[in-house]
Amino acid sequence: MMREIEYDFIDEITLKLKAEFGTIRFLEVGVCGAGTARGIHRRAAAIGCPIEAAGVDLEMYRPNPTPAANYKFYGGDSMDAWRQIKDSFNFLLVDGCHCCNHTMCDFLNYSPLVVLGGYCLFHDTALPTKLGKANQEAWPQDHSYAGQPPSSLGVREGLQKLGLLQGYRADWELIRELPSDTGLMGMILFKRIKK
Q1: Please, what sign has the CA dihedral across residues 152, 157, 160, 162?
Q2: Are 175 and 192 within 8 A, CB to CB?
Q3: Which residues contact 78 (CB under 8 A, 6 or more apart)?
């Protein structure tokens, strides 16, 4: 559920991870079938970069088959699943429930697992537009946890309340926003600059 430009953006991030770390250690919150993890595994293989990946989502979204042999899946609500994870990561993708509370909790619970210099990418961060409202109303109803069309408003509100968008945090730096002209999708990338 991403645009081609967003896949290209993730490709840029994988190249950056290879250059900076020599490996990709990827955690995705909001797996929904693991299409993104499969794509990152394929790209890592193509560029000769070792990868370990994990995903968090409700049990009904457990990928079958898993994206790779070294893939770990943590079933359950993201509000609770973080307690099971003992690994560290250099790339966190937050694409779970789009409400403000989940966005904030997903960041607060999973960002401590990101190593210094690692990245956190949020999906569905687009500013609302008239077209976006119409697109959200037409979106398949089973896409989000609450059975409602996804809204980028909760994600952006959560990022603002966390102080990430305004640059208020000393531990994370906004690197780049990939906007959307449709009012859906969009991405914002942050880098951990301090523990």
Answers
A1: negative
A2: no
A3: 29, 30, 56, 57, 96, 97, 102, 105, 106, 109, 110
Of residues 171, 176, 172, the one with CA closest to residue 187: 176
pLDDT tens-digit profile of 87-124?
999 999 999 988 889 999 999 999 999 999 999 999 99
Amino acid at 133: K
Record the pTM: 0.89
Tens digit of each residue's pLDDT (9 = 90 or more) over 13-68: 999 999 999 999 999 999 988 999 999 999 999 999 999 999 999 999 999 888 88
User: So where are the chain's domains?
Assistant: 4-192
Residue 141 is given by DSSP the state T
Give every strand in the sheet of 172-178, ordered side by side.
71-75, 51-57, 24-29, 89-94, 114-123, 187-192, 172-178
Contact 182, 132 (CB under 8 A): yes
Superfamily of domain 4-192: Vaccinia Virus protein VP39 (3.40.50.150)
